[in-house]
Amino acid sequence: MNHFQPRTNDMFFILQQVLQAPQQLQALPSHAEADADLMQQVLEESGKFVAEVVAPLNRDGDEIGAQFRDGAVTMPPGFRDAYQAFWQAGWPSLACAMEDGGQGLPAVLEATLYEMLSAANHGWTMAPGLLHGAYECIKHHASDELKASYLEKIATGEWLATMCLTEPHAGSDLGMCRTKAVPMADGRFALSGTKIFISGGEHDLTDNIVHLVLARLPDAPPGPKGLSLFLVPKFYEDGSRSAVVCERIEEKMGLHGSPTCVMRFDEAVASIVGEPGKGLNAMFVMMNAARLHVGLQGIGLLEAAWQKADAYAKERRQMRAPGSHAKAGEADFIELHPAMRRILDTQRAWIDGGRVVAYRTALELDILKHHPEPQRREAASRWCALVTPVLKAAWTDQAFHGASACLQVFGGHGYVREWGIEQVVRDSRVAMIYEGTNEIQAIDLLLRKTLPDAGAGLLALLDDLAIDLGTSDDATRLRTALARFRTLVTGQLLPRASAPDAPPDLAHWIAEDFLRVVTLLLMAWSWSRVANADGTDDPRWQRPQSAFWRWIWPELELRMGIMAEALARPAAAAQ
Amino acid sequence: MNHFQPRTNDMFFILQQVLQAPQQLQALPSHAEADADLMQQVLEESGKFVAEVVAPLNRDGDEIGAQFRDGAVTMPPGFRDAYQAFWQAGWPSLACAMEDGGQGLPAVLEATLYEMLSAANHGWTMAPGLLHGAYECIKHHASDELKASYLEKIATGEWLATMCLTEPHAGSDLGMCRTKAVPMADGRFALSGTKIFISGGEHDLTDNIVHLVLARLPDAPPGPKGLSLFLVPKFYEDGSRSAVVCERIEEKMGLHGSPTCVMRFDEAVASIVGEPGKGLNAMFVMMNAARLHVGLQGIGLLEAAWQKADAYAKERRQMRAPGSHAKAGEADFIELHPAMRRILDTQRAWIDGGRVVAYRTALELDILKHHPEPQRREAASRWCALVTPVLKAAWTDQAFHGASACLQVFGGHGYVREWGIEQVVRDSRVAMIYEGTNEIQAIDLLLRKTLPDAGAGLLALLDDLAIDLGTSDDATRLRTALARFRTLVTGQLLPRASAPDAPPDLAHWIAEDFLRVVTLLLMAWSWSRVANADGTDDPRWQRPQSAFWRWIWPELELRMGIMAEALARPAAAAQ
Predict the structure, then answer these.
(1) Residue A281, CB half-sphere, CA atoms under 13 Å: how many?
(2) The complex's ipTM?
(3) A202 catalytic, yes or no?
C-alpha cells in the first residue's frame, strides 16, 4: 500500500490560474508579500512534510490506534514525534499573527495544509485541527492575563486545545448543557460535569492540553444564553494538575488514531473566557473555523481515496473493456471500463470543484480580515457564512460516498484491509456527523441564514456567482440555472415558507434539497471558472469537467423539483 | 444494544395481502398445501429461530470474528452450536425436494428465512447461504454416484458447501481462471491452483465441507468455454483428508463472522460435475440463486439498520422539533425532526418495496419450476432473469447507503460501536461487490439480457408491470412512466446502441442509469400494489409510500435524462 502523496501542482493551479489568489492577496495590505512564488514554496514545503512525516503513520494509526489505560492515552507509534516536529517547524502558527508568535501568512495556505494533512492521516490531523480556532477564540475573547499564559502556546501549537461542548444528553442542542461553573473567591470558577466526544481530550502529544469548556453559572438562565466559556488546562502554570479526568475513549467505526474522550470535570479550577452568558458566541469563532476545516477534510479524504483507486485502476487489469485493443486472452486496465472511469472522473470533479469553493472561502476569510473596504468585507462575510455550511455538509457527504465508490474500483480487494481504501471509508464517515451534523448544516443554511433576512444574502451570493462567467455553453447553463433558482426562491420559497399560515416544519422538509441546489450551483461556478482558466483543455481537466455536467449536475433538476413540489403543497409536505 | 427481532407480520402482509402468494402457490400442483396458515406458521417458526438462536451471536461474530491458526478456522463463540441446531431443525432443506431429504416447501419461504437470517447475523448466514445453490448444482449436473454421496448431505445442510471461482488474477472475468485439473487413471482428477475470496472455505461448523471448483482440463481451450466444474470434499468418504489447504483468511472491513479464505489445491483428488467445458453453465445455477440471495441480504440488512434507528429515534430526544409541543427546556424525540423522519421513511420505502419485488421473484422461481403451462413458465423465467440483477445491485446499494443514513439518526453515537449500527454499515458494504459487482449486474441487465433480444424480454416485463394497476394517481404516474421509458428504449436505446456505427462502449456508459430506471419502475409497481391492498391506509404504510413518491421516485427523471443525453450524442458519451 502506498502512502498518500500530496499533488501540490494541482492545488497551486487552482490557487493561481483559477482563483488568482496571489493577486487577490497582494491587494490586502497585510499580505503584500504573498506572491505566487511564496505560495508555491509554502505548498511544496508543507506537502513534503505531510508526505514524509505524517502520511507514513496512517496505517498504524488505524490498526494500533490510540490506547487508553488508567486515565492516560498513548497515541499510536510515531504520532508524538511527528507532532513535535510539526509544531517546532512552525506549521500550526502559519496563519497566526506575528505578534502572537505566528507567521502571519494567509488563511488559504493553512487551508491547503490541512487538506493535505487530512488526506494523509485523518486521525493524526484531528489533534492540531482545532488549534487555529482555539487561537482565535482566546485572542478575541480571553482576558489579557489568560492571553499572557496561553495565546502563544496555542498559536505555536506547543500546547494542544480541545473544544468541550457535547454532553451525554445534549448533542446538537448545546443549550441543554448542564456542566456547572461555581464562582470561587479568587475570581476563578469550580467547574463540574461530564463532556463526551472530546477529540484529543487526553493524549501524549504535548506537555499540556488546554480545554475550552461550555458551562453554566449558578444563576444562568436556561437555554443557550445561559452558557459561558471557560478555560481549564491539564496542568496549571505552577505544574499542578487540574481536576479533569479522561474516563474512557470510545470504540469507533474508524478514526482510531484520534482518541474520542469522555472528560469528567470535578470542581476543576477554571477561568472564564469572555463575558458570562456569551460562551456560545465565543465558541462560534471556533466552530466556524472548524466547519471550514471539516469541509477541507472531506476534500482531502476524497483525494486520498481517488489517488488509491486511480493508481489501482491504472496498474490492474480486469476483463476486456468495450472496444478493447488488448490481445486475445488478455484483460484491460480497470480504468478503461466505463463504469470505473465514471466513478474516477466523478470523484475528481468533486475534488477539484470543492477545492475551488474551499480555497475561495479561505481567501474570503483573508479578505474579511484584511480588506480595507467595508463593502468588500461584507461580501466576504456573506460568502463565508453561506458557503461554510455547504462545504461542510456536501463535501463530507461526498468524501464518504465517493470513497465507497473508489472502494468499488478495487472489487473484492477493496473490502480487505490491505489496500487501505476501506480505512478511508470508515474514517471519513465521522465527518458527516461532527461539528454539527450535515442535517444541522442544512438547517443553518436555510433557516438561520436565508429565511431570516428574506433571502437577501443568498440572492447576493447568487449574483456573485454570475460575475465573470464568460460566454461558454457551461456558463450559459449556469446562468439559466441561477435565474431559475432565484425565481424558485423569490416566487415560492420565501413567500410560502414565511407565510403566516405556513406549517412550522415546511422549510425543514426541504433544507437538504436547498443545500444541495446551492452545492451544485457552487460546483458549476467552480467548473466554469476552471474552463475559463488557461491550460485546462487537456484530459486532466476535461474529463472531470465533463463528468460534472453529465453525472453530477442533473441532480439540480431533481432537487429543485422536490422543493417546488413541497412548496406547492405545504400541507402535504408537512406531515 | 438490542438484537434483531424479525417482524414476521410485516412480511406475511406482503406475501398475503400484496402478492396473494398462497393463492398463487396453491395453483401449482406441487404446492397445493401452501395455504396462508402454513406460510404464516413457517414464517413465525423461522422468525423465532432467527431471533433466539442466530441474532444474539451477531456482536461476537463482529468483535471476535473467525480466527485463523495453522490452516484451521475457529468460528466465533456459539456459531457451531447454532449451525448444528439450524440444520438439525431442517431449515436448510426447507425448499429441497422431498426425495432428496428436503421438505418440498416453496422457494419464497426460503427467501423470507434468509432475509431474516441476514438481518440478524450477516456473517453467520454466509455459511449456509450457498447451500441451496450447491444443492441445485449437484442435483442437476452431478453423476448418480456423486449424488449418492453428496446430495442429501448438502440438501439437509449436514455438510456445508463453497463456490471456488475467483483467482488472484481473475475476479469478475472467470474465463481467466488457471486452476488445472489433470485426469487420473481412475476417472477422477488431480486439481491444482489457488482460489481467493472463498467464503467459508474452512471452518468448524460442520464435519465436512464440499468445495465446488472451477478449473481447466489440460486440453481445454482458453476463456470461459474451457472451464469445467469439479467437486473436492474436505474429507473423502473413507475419512482421508483431501489436499486442500486454507492458507489464510482476509482482514476485512466487516463481515468478520465469515472467514474469507485463500484456498490452495495441491493435486487434490476431484470429481467432475457435469460435462467438460460446461463448468460455467453448471455454476450459473448456483450464481443465480446466490444473486437473489444477496438481494435479500440487502433488504434484511436495511431492515436491521432501520429497526435500530427507528427504536433510537423513538426513545431519544434531541433539540426542539419545528412546531414542537414539548415543554420549555425539553427536547423532542428524534423521530419528530423532519430530516430524521425523511431518512427513516425513505429506508422503509426501500425495504417494503424491495420485499414486494424480492418475494415476487421467489414466487416466480416456484412458478418457473412447477407451473403446468409453458407460457407462464416462460414469463417467470423472464422475470427472474431481468429482475434478479436489479434486486442484487439496487438493494445491496441501498443497504449500505441506507444503513449509513440510519447511522446518521444516532448522531455521534452512531459512529461508536455501542449501538451496533456501524457494524451494519461495514458488513453490508461487501454485498455491493460479491456475486458479481453491482456494475457487472448493470452490464448483465443491459448488455446481456436486453440488447441481445432487441428488448423483447424487457418490453414484456414492462407490460407485466402495467397489469392490474388500478386507477389511483400513483398508478397513473407509473403508467405514464412505463410508456415514456418504452419510448426511450424503442426510440433511442435500441436503435442507437445497436447501430453499426455505434461506439462499442455506448451502452456501457448508461448501464447503471438503465438499471436504476428499472429499479424505480419496479419500486413504483410495488408501491402501487401496496396501495391497492387492504389495510394500507394507516401511517405504517402511508408514510413510506409518500416517502417513495416524494424522495425516491424523482430519480427516474434524472436517470432517463442522463440516458437520453448520452444516446443523443453517442460520440460525446463514449470518450
Answers:
(1) 12
(2) 0.97
(3) no
